[in-house]
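Field reference: sequence -> structure
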Amino acid sequence: MITGSCNCGAISFEVTGPVRSISHCHCVQCRRQAGNFWAAAVTEDSDIRISGPVTWYASSDFAKRGFCATCGSFLFWKHNAESSVSFGLGTLDAGSGLKIEKHIFVADKGDYYDIADDLPQHDT
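Structure field:
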């Protein structure tokens, strides 16, 4: 089981099923929300149990971002038309065993850093 929480502990979550798309997202919105590229993984809505008062911000016409209104931690990304949710790897407790598999939205990458690994890179 994978567990995580926000910085103040008001929100916690448990992932009980499989995860996929373990990636670094370099899109402009993720960089602005997280302060840099965002490391995340995806699981089905039915495989995550969230406790606490998540505040959802409609960041576009098709997606929203979940954060803690108390400490400001950015925890989740959710496409409105999908039955899955992305969760931030930086919010996880030790021992997740997850490894980054790819980079996404590299066409939007910040000019202040380089991608210096051999993982696959996708423009979107």
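Note: The chain has one helix and ten strands.
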